[in-house]
Amino acid sequence: MIDVKIKRLTPTATIPTYGSIKAAGMDLYADLEGKDFICISPYETVKIGTGWGFDLPEGYCAIILARSGMATKQGLAPANKIGLCDEDYKGNYIVPLHNHSTENQVVRQGDRIAQLMFVPYVQANLIEVDKLTETERGEGGFGSTGK
Asked: The pTM is what?
């Protein structure tokens, strides 16, 4: 387990929580900043804040992912599919929720809207070369290893 410092950015923010003892992702909650609810029209995307900023440990980033129940039952999932929050970002963690359904969807203050995972990362030092290591696959692209 790692220690992560968080800062409340709005008085109505709900602190993120884990849904079970072994949950990999913690739930992020909608902070509608004074509104009781918002309606997301079919195929519309609305940015929803969480009301929290995070101070990630060195070498960690945060990944924002869909909640499977919300995605399958309501058609609501992050528009960018996976959100990446860099270690040096200290602002409000925002979830751009997209309504993939054909019906209006309601998000209420304090609803669970996404999951957050803390993940170690490694930056790469790119070295330009004239030739890459040869492999059996080579330059075979999409579908090249299947039948």
From this structure: 0.89
